[in-house]
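Team,

Forwarding the record for the chain on the shared tracking sheet. I've put the sequence and predicted structure together so nobody has to dig through attachments.
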Amino acid sequence: MTPGPAPADPVTTASVTTYFRVGGMTCAACVNRVEKRLSRMEGVAASVNLATGRARVSHPVGLPVEELVATVEKAGYSATLPEPPSDPRPAPVQDGEGGEHRRLVITAVLALPVLILSMAPALQFRNWQWLCFALAVPVAAWGAWPFHVRALRGLRHSTSTMDTLVSLGVVASFGWSVYALFLGGAGEPGMRMPFTLAPSVAGDGMAHVYLEATVGVPLFVWAGRFLEARARRGTGAALRSLAGLSVKDVAVREKGGGERLVPLERLRVGQTFLVRPGERVATDGEVVEGGSAVDLSLVTGESEPVEVGPGSVVVGGSVNVAGLLLVRATAVGADTRLARIARLVEEAQTGKAREQRLADRVAGVFVPVVLALAVGTLGFWLGTGRDAQSAVTACVAVLVVACPCALGLATPTALLAATGRGAQLGVLVGGPKALEGLRHVDTVVLDKTGTLTSGRMTVARVTAVPGAGGLDEAAVVRYAGAMEQGSEHPLGRTLVAHARDQADAELPGVVDFRALPGRGARGVVDGRLVEVGSPTGELPAVLADALTTAEAAARTPVLVRVGGEAVALVEIGDAVRPGTYRAVDALRRLGVRPVLATGDAKAPALAAATGLGIQEVHARCTPEEKAALVRTLRERGHRVAVVGDGVNDAAALAGADLGIAVGSGTDAAIGAADVTLVRTGIEALPDAVRLARRTLATIRVNLVWAFGYNVVTVPLAMLGLLNPMVAAAAMSASSVLVVGNSLRLRAWRPPTRRRRVR
């Protein structure tokens, strides 16, 4: 399979980034070991994710990928090149999960009778211990075999991992049980053995067997890993749901008017295809014929279907709700919006938060320290005169209870769940750094045109003089649109589009049309003289008030006269997106101060800022001035995010603590950003801030639990206050709890949206 390395940082043109899967990792110590081995190679930087089993390696162009794979294999792990990250298909099952499931089931069948008999003295019949021994032998050998193999592999490489601790725990408890049965008197017929959750280190003079620990340790570890795997698959459900949006076959329109069904991978840019009601749009394209409503909720998080018609852009993966559409493909394969979303989410999930980097450093020395503590515990109890049974019990408990797995899973599982949930909400987060940036941002610099506003001229309001000329508002709009049908002026085209949207029939024709330079145009419509142009002369009171309002709002006023009488004033401007009011208010409630910086003139900038309640406004800003504003704010101690959608925003986006691009913007803006809002506008931005804060809080809770668990349980085990079987259950539970806590992010919902604030 071809590696398909993706270009790394454009500044570092001599390096590329390669992704591959690493098999055999079981804890954070494994992650640390793989990263260290790869980073020892000249010019190589590696980041390995335990939850996904993926490695992201930046390396010199001349370094063959085969050498990277060989380095991982020399460290005792497997490495395989995955499908290209642009392919939004779900990852295959890793590390033989099916085989591990079968091993768990068989181990459970063998282990449960041993556990029941060992824990219930009333059920211990004559020679019960020999039945338990017969059942424990295959568990200690076959059931725990993968742990023994990985422990020996680590020994050959002079390293130790979680598997080393599990293997030693099984071997030590089984070895002591063999000694007790054959040489210590525990094999005598009629022997009864009490069971306690917190055994005393003083001993009772009896030679106990610890077969329940022998079978319990692998059973609970396998059960814990099975639950972890299921939960981790849950954290990646959002990415798999994106993969499920792609279709397998598409109905391509033939030149003769017929159609044929072809596989999606054979579709080419420029071909036209049919989308019937209820079907998914196969790929990004432009509607050629037909009209319908398209549901984008699973792609962008938009809750309401969007009306589309000829000329409208549609996104692959969206659902055609009603009519029949003929669509021309504009992007296929890795170039589609859906593939880009999947790629951004996958790349985000390979990063590491600051806390996780600390946890990985701790995990690198964790297992050797635990081994030293276990040996020290054994020596201490033997040195104080305690019996060997109590000393071995405490030693095994120390080996089994220690858990670097939770440390390794604390951040990646939360990041998996959060980035997937963010994608469902229309927010693509570039990784842990972006989450941390969102968490601490206190100032957001907003562009106006295309970000806060729609970026296109629309009719904001029509004010008609009641009863003037015997015309209502609809008739006035129809006459004005008819007059401008031949106009190339942006205002004229806006009037025509608005009139056609409002009219039930075709607009009437114009007779005796004349352009009035600097004033507008005049002509005859339906036998009546109509003039459309700039407001001049004395106006009726209602139109004079409307003119004042239009000027205050920085809208362009267009006066309509019929038969020489002023009958209406049409206000045209770049309208603020409906969700913007709500989003800006929510940002203020979250403690984030909005600042408007735009290249537009002062009047429209102030008008938009006033309507949104933004206090600080910077108008007529060049790209350099926007970047300078960001630097100034940062020098004042602010944590600054910049939101933009154009090429002129790229410098400011790159220079901010956090760059946020609107998904409808240019590739330059999206490429310079840390966060991309898939939806148009900034309505999802407050949700992104809330999700970041919740995610980092979840990561901190996970790490507190992971560190705190070991701080509490290891000393208890050293004091002989933990039965090894209970220690095994606690160790597995710690990892499952961490993953389960992260999994709650999948169900996170933004607070109920308040009514629009103006």
